[in-house]
Structures are given as C-alpha cells and as structure tokens.
C-alpha cells in the first residue's frame, strides 16, 4: 500500500496523530482498485467518527445509501445504529464506524472471498491507527468474515470474542433489526454485555460519563 507508512508501536496515538495517519490512509485507499468493486462503486466508503475512539463499530459492506453518500451506516439502519449507541451512552461522533469492505457489492450480495482478502488490510490499518479498546461487530456476515468461521449469530453474540488481539462483541445488524424488531431485546442484551466489559477496561473519567447500565 504505497503512500502509507505504518508504525508498529502499540501505544495509543495522540488524537491529532491518529487523524493525520487516517487522513494519509484515506488518501491512499480512496483510489484503491484491488478488486472489481471499484468498477461498480459510486463512492468509496472509508469510515467516519472519532479517530482515537475506544469503540469501533464494524459492519459488512456499504449498502445503496452508503454508496450514494460515501458515508457508513446512513439511512434507516444508520439511524437505528445511532439510537443503539445513544442508549449505550455513546454519541455517534464519539465512536468510529466503518465496514470490512469499503465499496458496495452489487445488489448488496455477500462479500466474495477475494474481495475480503483484498480489502481487509485497509480495515486492519484503520484499527492499528485508532487502537480501539472494544470492537462491536454488526451481523452474521461481518462476524463470519472477520472470524473466518461459519458459526450462527446465536453462537457468537453476547460474549467476548478475541480477534487479532482486539476485544470484540457481536450482535445483530441494524438492518436485521428493522426486518425483525423482536430481535431488539437480544441486541440490547448484547450491548449491555459489551458495556459491562467496556466499564472494566475504561479509565475512571470515561466511566463516570458513560452511565453504564448493569
Ligand atoms: S472493496 Fe476494498 S479492495 Fe475492493 S476496490 Fe474497494 S477499497 Fe479496494
């Protein structure tokens, strides 16, 4: 990935340094044509939010509205995600939101394995810069893709999962919750489990801000 220099240190970067590095990464990634999704995309959807966020939210890939706007999780799914985050005491701008794939698969089909292989390095670079304490993975496809398994969402959700040294939690994709509102209760249970873990690893100042629900 020419044009981007990755530092291998493990320390959380200063916010301004994270912003500068993410900007550099964005400038390099936005012209990516490593898979055929570059041919059909309207916009490259890098991600947005707090460049030194403790919580990163990862979905599978941009949909039609994300492709049109160049922003992750907009439209009805995005509005529901915002509500879920707010219920967990996070404003959208406090966290970082992105997808595994940065370009929309036609017709919102599932990512192909070569697309995942091509695009995952961008996500890994983002995470190396942001250094989140917790990652929230949205939906079965995203979780299967990251974890390299075929497990059901029911098997993976609601518990701590380690992935590449990151503390991850998996729950329903907001689009699935819009299709089946009965799953919202389970989603909220997953978020509460995540928040309890967040509370154990977050510094005292942030803990007082978060009003973690027991
Ligand atoms: S999906 Fe990822 S790998 Fe494929 S062209 Fe877009 S940025 Fe590049």
Provide a short characterization of the protein structure.
This protein is of the alpha/beta class and 214 residues long.
Give keywords.
single chain, globular, 214 residues, six-stranded mixed sheet, alpha/beta, 10 helices, binds iron/sulfur cluster, disordered N terminus, Uracil-DNA Glycosylase, subunit E
- Number-wise, the strands total 6
CATH architecture: 3-Layer(aba) Sandwich
Could you name the CATH topology?
A: Uracil-DNA Glycosylase, subunit E
Oligomer: single chain
List unreliable stretches of 5+ residues: 1-9
What letter string, H or E per element, gives the SSE order?
HHEEHHEHEHHEEHHH
Largest sheet descriptor = 6 strands, mixed
Q: How many domains? A: 1
* Proportion of strand residues: 5-15%
Which shape, going by the Cα principal axes? globular
What ligands does this structure carry?
Answer: iron/sulfur cluster
Radius of gyration: 16 Å
| Terminal residue distance | 44 Å
Structural class: alpha/beta
**Percentage of residues assigned to helices:** 40-55%
Spatial strand order of the main sheet: 1-3-2-4-6-5
The CATH superfamily turns out to be Uracil-DNA glycosylase-like domain
Number of helices: 10
